[in-house]
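RECORD CONTENTS
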Amino acid sequence: MPDAWLWLLDILILLGAALALGTLAEVLRQNSIVGYLLAGMLVGPNALGLVASHDEVHFIAELGVTLLLFSIGLEFSFKRLLKLGPITYVGGTAQVVLTTLAGWGLASALGLAWRPALVIGMMVALSSTASVVRLLVDTTRIDSPYGRNALGILLLQDIAVVPLVILTLALGGENTPAQSLFLLGRTVVLSALTFGVFLLLFNLLVPKLLHLSSLARNRDLPVLLAVVMALGAAWAAHSVGLSPSFGAFLAGLLLAESPFAAQIRSDVAPLRTLLVTLFFAAVGMLVNPSWIAVNPAPVALTVVLIVILKPALIHVITRLLGFGTGTSLATGLCLGQVGEFSFVLATTALGAGVIDNDLFRLVVSVTVISLLVTPYLVRIAPRASGWAENLRPLFGSGAGPAATDSSRVEFGQIPDRAVIIIGFGPAGQQAAERLLPVMRGRLAVVDYNPDNSDWAHSLGIPFVIGDARRRELLEHLHLERAEALIVTVPDQDAVRQIIHLVKSTAPELRLLVRARYHIFKWELVVAGAEVVVDEEAQVGIRLAEEFLEGACT
């Protein structure tokens, strides 16, 4: 049988096992990623041995991560990326450096020599872009404050992979310090040149191509062009030593301003889902269950230390950057694992003689087990955020800028009998625009993001900067004097937390909230909302109204 058909058989077996165990995981109300990882462990070379072409399968699976990051780039655009602020550059750098140092110190304390201990620290510093981003997208949390923080840190980690690989080679003695510095400098220069070429092509050539009449008539052509650009950017990034997924993300960012962005994102989604599923199953194939059975203590201890200490460190970093207790805790929980790029470092370190086979197996085992735990960490992140905000007053305000700036009025005073709008994104702005002529100065706005204050300022609406999940912020609003509260926040867990806090603070206040999906409507009604506006239902109603208006003219 030709090799290509053998690869196809391997992919078929792997996808079939992923389908079966992913379905079983969903039936048991677990995340399907758990099923995919277990499927790879089951059919891989260290268990049943049904799949032999691991390298080829893993290469195809990595394309899934590339398309995933490309799709996320289409969602963000450069303007939104810049709004992530210092969490990407300062927070991401601090996280990589401090986690590396902490892992190095802890591994040294456990008896490792300094070189392998340092490599272990670098591996632990990297989290899983593929797993975390997939989970945040699936749970509609990617645009939450902690989701944006996690994405910013993950992007910096992807950029850091190259210098970490160079440092690993230097530790193995394959390169002198001068050679390592030269390689690092060359990578920086090539990266800058690649970025410049991307900007030139995407700003000059791509807009002209996308506006060709032939592309406008045939919906397949923009998608093909986008896939070519995504894979081309991934290849270009890989050729200069950068992460291919980072190159694809950059391509998505540059295409995000295109009118075809939404269409491209939806058309690429099925292929992306298929390949990302294959990626998680391929990662599961790396695990050797028999080795874990012989060495359970070091594996369990390492996993526990990572899941506890890494989120704690990230929590401290994000707090120092001015984020609230809840947001910082949720950010740390989302990143409490070892990522897929740790395999790159581990393979490099093994080839350079920095680590031995047993340490390599430990890294692989810990990485996959931490990925198995990740869906549960991401699931509890929003709840833990709410608990932290509710418990924070019991322990004092704490240190850090966020503690002293949780409910700051940007301008104006909140009037009596005000209608207070929580969340000042597009939905909140539309609500304010409709209410402004009627309320006559009795509007106020609460939003976590100070960048949203300009529009409110132009209309003279009092703007409060802060997180409405904090009891002290709600007390600052004097809800007992308000006429109504309108919640337009898209994060449904945050909406539920706000409802509970409002009902305990001002139980008689009229509460109108937004439900992003129909399945959340009755949960919010039960929680205590008087009026719940169901986005999906409203879209259907509006479409019917538009049709009837057109039919009557």
Q: What stands out?
A: Residues 357-391 form the longest helix (35 residues). Residues 395-411 have pLDDT under 50 and may be disordered.
